[in-house]
Structures are given as C-alpha cells and as structure tokens.
Amino acid sequence: MHDKTLAELARGLAAGDFSSRELTSSLLERIKRHDPALNSFITVTGEQAIKEAEAADALRHKGEAGILSGLPLAYKDIFCTEGVRTSAGSKMLDNFIAPYNATVVEKLRHAGTVSLGKTNMDEFAMGSSNENSYYGPVKNPWNPTLVPGGSSGGSAAAVAAGLVPAALGTDTGGSIRQPAAFCGITGLKPTYGRVSRYGMIAYASSLDQAGPMARTAEDCAMLMNAMAGHDARDSTSVSRNVPDYTQGLDKPLNGLKIGLPVEYFGEGLAPEVETAVREAVRVYESLGAQVIDVSLPHTSMAIPAYYVIAPAEASANLSRYDGVRFGYRCEDPVDLEDLYKRTRAEGFGDEVKRRILIGTHTLSEGFFDAYYRKAQQIRRLIRQDFLDAFARVDVLMGPAAPTTAFELGSRADPVQMYLQDIYTIAINLAGIPGISVPAGLVDNRPVGLQILGPHFGEAHLLNVAHVYQQATDWHQRRPEIKE
Amino acid sequence: MQWEVVIGLEVHVQLSTCSKIFSGASTAFGAEPNTQACGIDLGLPGTLPVLNENAVAMAVRFGLAINAEIPEYSVFERKNYFYPDLPKGYQTSQMAHPVVGRGEVDITLGDGTVKTVRIHHAHLEEDAGKSLHEDYSGMTGIDLNRAGTPLLEIVSEPDMHSAEEASAYIRAIHAIVTYLGISDGNMAEGSMRCDVNVSLRPKGQEKLGTRAEIKNVNSFRFVERAIAYEIERQSEILEEGGVVVQETRLYNPDLDETRSMRTKEEANDYRYFPCPDLLPLMLDEAYVEHQRSLLPELPSEKRQRFVDALGLSTYDADVLTGSRPLAEYFEAVQQHCGDAKLAANWVQGDLLGRLNRDGLDITESPVSAEQLGGLLMRLADDTINGKAAKQVFADLWECKGETADEIIDARGLKQVTDTGAIESLCDQVITDNPVQVTQYREATEDKRGKMIGFFVGQVMKASRGTANPPQVNAMLKEKLDALL
C-alpha cells in the first residue's frame, strides 16, 4: 500500500479494497520500522491517527465519505496542530503544544484526512538541507549520506520513503520545490495568498507559502482542492474563486509556449542536472509544446534581495520567543535582560541567530534605506521580469536546484548553502506559483524540473506537470529501502 | 534673558471599539487579568492580525472633525522593541503613512481668545499590556487584557507656549473625541494619556531648544503641573548657563516633580518596517464621504449655535460645550424648562458646583436632566420661588423624590400667590410689629426702602417661604405707605 499514490489509495478506499484503519496502521508500522534511520518525523501521532481513521471508515460506511476521507498525510512541524507539539524544528518550541489548528490543518481534517504526525524541518524553516533542525538532520531515502533538502526535508523524505503518501510543506525561498527535487517527489508552491498562512509559524511573512508534497501532480491537485481559498483570519489571503484543480489535468499541451530563462542555465548549474532538465523539455516538445528562450534580467539580484527581506521579517517574527509567555525559558534568570539574552542564546540555533542578526542590522537606523528599501525595489523589478516573461510564454521551465542532493555536512559555508536556492527564491519574491516534478536520476540521485506560471496559474501548472507524468515514469521511481 | 516656552503634545486616545484592533477579544475595562487576551493578543506562534474596520472608521471621523487630510493610502508598520508586556516583540503602529494627515484644532483660552493648534498627523496603533509590580515581590506580573486595544495617537505641532494652552488643547481633544463617541475619554482609566514635549528658547529665536519628553501624563491637571515644573526646571538650568539634556522624564503627582527616565543615548532604535501581515489600507473618497455623513455636531458648531440660537454668552457656551455629556445634559434641561439662560445658570452653578464637591462626573449626576428641567420649569412659571428651588434641588440630589413636583407637593413649597392670603399675612405682620411701624413712619424716604425688608422677611417666615416675594413687597409698601 505504501507505494500507491493518493489517487490510487482513494480509489482503493472507495472500492473497499482496504480500510483507512488498515492503511493507517500499516503506514504507522512502516514509520516505526524505517523512520529511526531517516529521522523524517519529529512527532508521530499514532493513537490519534487510528481514531481519525476509524472515524473516516465509519463515515464511509454511512456513505458520507469525501474524496480525501481516510487518506493519511503528515504536516511539516511548522503547522499548528491542536493538542500536539508544534516545534518548528526548534528547541525554543520543544515544549509548545499548539492550542489551535492552522487553517490548512482544519480544512484537511474537515475533508477527512488522517494525520500521522509532524515532520522534521530546518529550524523555523531556515535552511536548504534540513541540517538546522534541533531534532537532528533528516537522511535522504535515496542515500542516507545525502541531505533531503530543506526546509521541508522531513515531509519530502517521508513521502519518498513511502512512510506517508503526501505531506504538507512550506516554501519561503524554495523549501517545497528543492527538497521535492532532492527526494524525487512532486511539490507545489502555490501563488502567495492562495493558501492561508493562519496557524503556520512565521519565518518571513511576505514570502511564506504552504503547499502540497506528494508523488504526483494529480495528488497535489487533490490536496489543493481542500487547502486553497480565502481565510478571514489571514489578511493577505486572497478572496478569489478556487477552481477544481483535478479538472483539466489531462488537457493536451499542443501549442504550449515554454520559456527557458537563460539565467537558469548558466554558471553554477551542474551539467548532469542541465542535461536532465533539457531532456524533460524535449519531452514537452514531443507533446506539442514550443520552446522560447527568455530572459529574467534581475535574477542575479534575487538572492541578495531575499537575504535582506526574509531576515528582516524574521527578526521581527521571532521576537516573540522571549521566554515570557510560552516556549523555552532559560534556568534561573537573574533579571529581565538575562532572561531575554539566555533564553534566546540557548533556544535558537546558529542559522536562526545569524538571520535574526542580519535582519536586525538591515532594519536599523542608517542601514534601512541601503538594504531594506533597496531590496524592496529589486523585488518589484523581479516581479516585473516575470510579468514580462508571461506576456510571451505560458510557463517557464528550469532546474529546481543547481545540483542534486549533496552530502550531509558538505556545505559548511552559509553563503554556499544560500546559493542552493538560486532558482527558487525569485519565485517567492514575485509571489508566483512553481512546481517541481521528478525528471531524471543522476547517480541514483533525483533531479527536479521546475515549472513556473503566472499568479493563480497553479491549475495550469498541475496540468502541465500531470501530462508530463503520464508520458514519463520518473515520478514512479522509488528509493531502495531495505524492508 | 526672556525665554519662550515651546510645547508639543502626543495624545493617546483609546478608541471605544468592542473588540481589539487586530483580534476579536473584548476591550472592556476592569476584567480579571489575562481573561481578555486571545492567542493573537498573546502573540502565539502562527497567529495573524486582522484589522478592526471600526477602529479605522473612528480614526477617519476624528480626522474629518479636525479638517485633516485623509490619505487614500496608509500603512501599518512594526515598531520593534523588547518588553515583557509587549507580546510579539513589536508594536503594530503607523509611521511613514498614517491614516490621518495634517489638520487643526481651535482652543479657547481663559480670556476668551481662540487659538489654532496645528495637528501634524494622527495614527492608529495597538496598545501593549500592563506590567504589575505591586503584589509581586521580586517578580513582575503581566496582564495582557489591554494588549491590542486600539489607540489613536494624535501628534500636535509645537504650537503651544504655556501650560494653560496645553491644557486647553487637551480639553479640546477630549471634547472632540467624546463628541464623536470614539472614546470615553476617561483619563483615570487610561483612555486618554499624553506625552508632553517641552523646550525653552530665547525669545525671538527661530531654532527650537532641546526638549524633554514627559511620558504618560494622565490628567488635565497633571499636564499643567508637569509643564509648569518642567518650565521652572529648564529655565533654572538655562539661566545658570547650563544645557538641557534631551531625555524622557516621568511626572510624579505625589511629589509634583518630573524625574529622568532615560536619556537619548539609551534610546531604542525601533527598526520600523511595513508589517507584512497587513495589506496597505486603501480608503477611497466614497468611504471618506460616508464617514463624514456620520459626524455628529462638533463642539465648535454647538458652541456657535448656543450663542446664536439660544442667546448664551460665549463664556457660558464654552463651558457648557466642554464635553458632549455636559452639552447634552444642558440641552435636555433647556428643552424641558424652555429657558436657556436659567438652564445655563443652574447647570453651571448649582449642578456643576455640587458635582465638583462630590467628585462626580456629569454622567454620574444623581439629578437627571429631566429632573432638573422639571424643577426649573416650576421656577420659571412661578410655582416656586428661588429659595424653594434650592430646597427642591437638594432633595432631588438626596433622591427624596422622583420629580420636582412630588417634592414641592410633599413639602408644601408651592408659592402662595393668592392676593387675599398674602394680604392677611401682611396685615398680621403690621399689627404684630408696632415699634417697627413707628420707626418706618418716622424714617426719611430713602431709608424706608431698606426698612421694608424686615417686614418682607417676617411675611416670608410666616408663609414658610412660600409667599411670592415681589408680591409681598408691593403689598407691604402699599399698606405701610398708607399709614404715613
């Protein structure tokens, strides 16, 4: 059962081939057996999952089951889940039990899904390798010496290893698409504002976006149907009709205009990744698409702009972790100053501290104009680059990451690590949607093809990804896991 | 040297919305600590702010009341600092693009002159919680009930030059916000607090002197006293050739002095930047016009109407429009008794005097406008005389009756105007006082006028105060003169 897609499992449940309880307990068994080697979960909620599965089965007996009823999934530990620890991968929130559900959790629960638990992540979603988690690094199921990518690395690894058919991730600068690419699964970052951020622990509010991670575009579409939509509790969520993402997945791609940004195929791109991506584009040509070279001239400024804006927002978003009301508090503070300093020194990891310091610096008097204001100007230029490109083409394609998954501990220099997100970050700055689909294997390491679309174009992206997955089998490749 | 005082004020007005500016939690005053703070107010991870539309509407109406520009576009920003009663580690406020732009407020001074104070801007922000130091030895308690309460911060230009002007300005702001109904203006409960900036400069100099900021002054009186103290302190320093340090000071009402809280060197860098959780606020013309249509009669308009239509003096009109509840009270009394001057005299004299003595606000008056109006009606139609009216008022204050008529009946205070009854009383008094009658007859013409008072007093006494004094006077004069 663990090899099946969400759509196949939905059909199995509907046909009565197995119950949600059977499916859930078999996956819980699998987690118990394999996760100690992977470390993809922070918290497994077995008992609760069984109860939810039984409730879903009961509903099905009454004929009231929906399409997602009884389907198991997992949440990145950044989504608040009522009564369950929600740590954001940080010692700071190791003892934090959320008193409410994030809006997406609420929506997926309402749709009848079963939560198996909370997946591992880089602390406060800061990282590209999942090595920044307080709970230790996640191992890539394709090879345990490799990183799974970050920061939604736990979700990506759990899906790739067949511990769960789908999981939720968040993407602030590529944190859904890059780990999806490294683990050989499909991950969608929707348009900013399409999915509510309420109850999602904030890293950089103007960039954070929740999205589905699964084996196929079709599965992502099923999840998006439940996740997307306006939320009155999130002022930045957009009030706009939600299409049925599972409709139109098979639409033929005749005449599809694909733009290849020249900036995404330059220096720094591993040749074998380029080869795989170009091969994927050729598949599209064979399906009737037309390929055009385009330019996104401000691409080189995306990483510098991101590393001003995201840390600036993070420095404010993370101020609430002060040891006063919840979360970690240092032992025996002598006074208020000591309480703040030691709580934050002991509770946060290095990368989080680094970004808080950067953000505090760039916002401070005398630097604001040179950094923050300038970065916001660049952000507008980057957004305009995409608008100009989408005036000429329907979608853009390129690699999701410059390399395949790298060895644990191999990127000690933070700036080297930041370059991992060179092809994903601009998308967050512009607020447009992007999807990564498996498009090859190099030395048994997955390669991700990234497809980008205009704002609210995720239905089309899913169609473009799905048709490719009908024509290829990269998404069906599985890492070898010793049973 | 001659010094000129320059004063600017930042007034924080707590808006009387039912719920907080970014959450649905209640804003009611006086609840048990931490019972009116939801996850958003506590800054729990994952929570997001949603702007309270009513707070925006109130701010816009304030802007319209002071003839301010209402920009189409305003932005909420985060003001970053650490404090245990600031849950998120930042206060959501407005800096670069506030909701209310430049405007102006007229103030009336003691000598009746009217002066215009310019308003730099007014912006919306959330309040912080409260740190409780009493009852916690060596520890601090935190009450977050107030966290997220909507505040309108009104920033004046440094246009005031005396404690009196500053005090008149705050009273004017107080009147406007209470008229608009956007705040209860209760300074004791912290609904209105202000930061006062005071500096001195040699008379005639353009450049401003170094200022001290006195934080969180919470009564009209304290504002005046804090400024007076600060003028004294700074002029002493300057006279001795010293330099005033730019700093934040606190006013201590018990000692009637200000003391340094922190100097500028220790001041925070607040690192303002636009709050990414809140979209810019866009207000179109139709919205602003709709808010304009909701404006009530404002203090300045009411003052003018009291003078023009009711014939009150500017002084009376000014006092009676000092707050909306007072003005409404007066208008109700006036409508009841039909005599504006009489109503004005009684409200300002007997009523406010009594309220003052008992430390009560007009809204807490034991005598309602209807009750006072009923009393004045009886005074105006000669049912009772002025002396009886004072008694009736005292009884109404002590809650000895629901209406003036009830008290008049119960105590038999109805004025006797029956000529026959008055005549017999007069005859009786003349008969009973032969010595005084003789003195009257022997007195010169100009002294008789004064002497008649004795007889009037006797008649009033005999009537237990109910006889109509002018009638008694006339009757006695006629009878005594007949004896000449």
TrEMBL record, chain A:
GO biological process, one term: translation
PANTHER family referenced in this protein's UniProt entry, alphabetically: GLUTAMYL-TRNA(GLN) AMIDOTRANSFERASE SUBUNIT A, TRANSAMIDASE
Full protein name: Glutamyl-tRNA(Gln) amidotransferase subunit A
Record's catalysed reaction(s): L-glutamyl-tRNA(Gln) + L-glutamine + ATP + H2O = L-glutaminyl-tRNA(Gln) + L-glutamate + ADP + phosphate + H(+)
Function field: Allows the formation of correctly charged Gln-tRNA(Gln) through the transamidation of misacylated Glu-tRNA(Gln) in organisms which lack glutaminyl-tRNA synthetase. The reaction takes place in the presence of glutamine and ATP through an activated gamma-phospho-Glu-tRNA(Gln).
GO molecular function terms listed in the Swiss-Prot or TrEMBL record: ATP binding; glutaminyl-tRNA synthase (glutamine-hydrolyzing) activity; transferase activity
Enzyme's top EC category: ligase
Name of the gene encoding the protein in the UniProt record: gatA
TrEMBL record, chain B:
GO molecular function, one term: transferase activity
Gene Ontology BP term (one): translation
Catalytic activity field: L-glutamyl-tRNA(Gln) + L-glutamine + ATP + H2O = L-glutaminyl-tRNA(Gln) + L-glutamate + ADP + phosphate + H(+); L-aspartyl-tRNA(Asn) + L-glutamine + ATP + H2O = L-asparaginyl-tRNA(Asn) + L-glutamate + ADP + phosphate + 2 H(+)
Keyword Transport: no
Top class in the EC scheme: ligase
Keywords from the UniProt entry: ATP-binding, Ligase, Nucleotide-binding, Protein biosynthesis, Transferase
Coiled-coil segments: none
Domain of life assignment: Bacteria
Enzyme Commission code(s) on record: 6.3.5.-
Family according to the record: Belongs to the GatB/GatE family. GatB subfamily.
Subunit structure as annotated in this protein's UniProt entry: Heterotrimer of A, B and C subunits.
HAMAP family, alphabetized: GatB
Function: Allows the formation of correctly charged Asn-tRNA(Asn) or Gln-tRNA(Gln) through the transamidation of misacylated Asp-tRNA(Asn) or Glu-tRNA(Gln) in organisms which lack either or both of asparaginyl-tRNA or glutaminyl-tRNA synthetases. The reaction takes place in the presence of glutamine and ATP through an activated phospho-Asp-tRNA(Asn) or phospho-Glu-tRNA(Gln).
The name this protein goes by in its record: Aspartyl/glutamyl-tRNA(Asn/Gln) amidotransferase subunit B
Organism: Kushneria marisflavi
Taxonomic lineage of the native organism: Bacteria, Pseudomonadati, Pseudomonadota, Gammaproteobacteria, Oceanospirillales
